[in-house]
Amino acid sequence: MLRESVGGNLAALVERLKSRDSLSLLDFAKRCREGKDALISAYSLPPAAAERLAQAAPDVFMKLEELELPATTTVQLNTSSEGEPETWQTIEALSTGQKATAVLLLLLEAVVNALVHRDYLLSSTDIELTIFDDRMEIVSPGRLPNGITPARMLTGCRATRNQLIKDVMRDYRYLENSGMGIPRKIVKSMREHNGTEPVLIEDGERFNLRLLR
Questions:
Q1: Whose CA, among 98, 100, 139, 151, lies 20 to 30 Å from 53?
Q2: b/e code 163-200 from CB counts within 10 Å (16+ = b)
Q3: Segment 65-103, tens digit of pLDDT
Q4: Which residue spans of the chain are classified as CATH 3.30.565.60?
Q5: Cβ atoms within 10 A of the Cβ of 47, count?
Q6: What is the CATH number that goes with domain 108-212?
């Protein structure tokens, strides 16, 4: 995408990014907006390439934020009892009962997200959880806040609508503070569980998270 949108010789830049242990496209887009010096400082990019990136059109940075990097980690669950040494296993290696527990944890994450991010100003509306033959849907009242889109959610982009509820859920360890529940937990867990991707749909004043069976 960078080669098409920015142009020029970006081979050294691409190799520099590939060599990093971790890469946040949100942070990378932010540094691009801040300019050449920020890119060089944060990513040690060649000056010429950093300058071309910094001069790219604003829509290039938005496209960067909406890209989804291939999964590079494997979801594992700790199957040991409390007080025992940790035993981490992939979902494929779990017993039938353990897999059922993993699916319940996935469902809990989805419901917690709905509770935290729904629009409580919409009266006479409820969070809906519906199980169909081929899928499960969790519907949360309200549009996505502050310019968030389903594509940006998949990359970890976040905006808090109900900060107090989020803080309480975090304090009780029902969610992390990173806002990465969708990409790190739900997306990766579904890939491990049955090889499918969650479907995120914004439909009017409703947000629908669809999990295929």
A1: 151
A2: eebbeebeeeebbeeebbbbbbbbbbbbbbbeeeebeb
A3: 777 655 544 556 677 777 788 887 776 777 777 777 777
A4: 108-212
A5: 11
A6: 3.30.565.60
